[in-house]
Amino acid sequence: MKESNPMSPNSIPWLFAVAFLFGGVKAFSSATQSNEWPRHRGDPALNGIARSELGSDLSLQWVFDTGEFLKSSVVVAHGLAYVGAESGQIHAIDLKSGKEKWSYKTDMAIEAPPLVEAGMVFVGSTDGFLYALEATTGKLLWRYETDGEIMGAPNQAIRPQSKDSVLVVGSYDNFVHCMDLKTGKALWKFETQNYVNGVPTIYEGKYVVFGGCDAMLYVVGLEDGKIVRSVEVEAPIAASVAVADGVGYVGNMDRAVMAFDLESAEMVWSYQPKSFPYFSSPAVTEKSVLIGGRDKGLHCIDRVSGNAIWRFSARGRIDSSPVVSGEKVVFGSMDGKLYLVSLKSGTEVVSYEIGEPISSTPAVVNGRVIVGCEDGKVYAFKTQS
User: Fold this and answer.
1) Which fold has domain 24-383?
2) pTM given for the model
3) How would you list the strands of the sheet with 58-65, edge to edge?
């Protein structure tokens, strides 16, 4: 697929810029409340935007030990932080004290982030099951079986015609599955040609958008799971697609961050500064796209042109997906540090050295940052101005 000319008056980015001037941006009003982070990436469109403001200092409040290794990202709802563990357990941790309220054991490791919705917590396990638990007690309500590992979080939506609340989740069985939220009853599944690793994105309440290890970007109907369109993206996709104003943003496992018009399936732009892969999912603001790379950089890209705005250099690769909170961006690095950088300039505001790799995505609530580290521990920080 050829790259578009981002500055051509007839190109999609030009129309996109006009939409900014006259239509505004609708994608960011769905960001979660400041005291909640119940979904991985914050909202159904996976924009990575927090409503809570962060200060300019990091003060460690508590540490919770899950075991030897931790890949799952934390979500927060109703005063509890939820996280999966290598032991196969999902832990519910009191947000104030850092003490465990309950845990539930699955048969194999949990690397996927949970989802909290309708008084229930949902989490996929590498044992191939999606589990639905009572959020306050951890009681098992139902479980749904796939034929492969579940590595990404489920997403929740209301089907446009049936009006029922559903979950969609990808699996290493090469399918994206849709099931009833209350009962776990299968509604449809869509087959790809390889693993589905990321979180399916909900677009306009009518479509599910996702990429896979078959190097394709898919748009399927939320109601029935039927294909709407697909796009070749030249390389496998390990992360999730962020969607804003009809454009999908995603990095691939080769060397590019790409923007696609989801109606026409045309490439809007392709950002390729060097040859290195992206395992991070992008955060999308009104003006920029932010994504971590395995070049040890956090990249800030202009949403309209696809040109670089700034790049922040860490000392290790950045697989952690950035979260934008006001004028700051928070993310972890494999160098063992949690970083806060300026959204405007990309300069470091503050960092905290944990000392072990951080590949998970932070949760941001009420001026606090909760993040899992590969040393098996969850760290909760308070930020102070």
Assistant:
1) Methylamine Dehydrogenase; Chain H (2.130.10)
2) 0.91
3) 58-65, 377-383, 368-372, 363-365
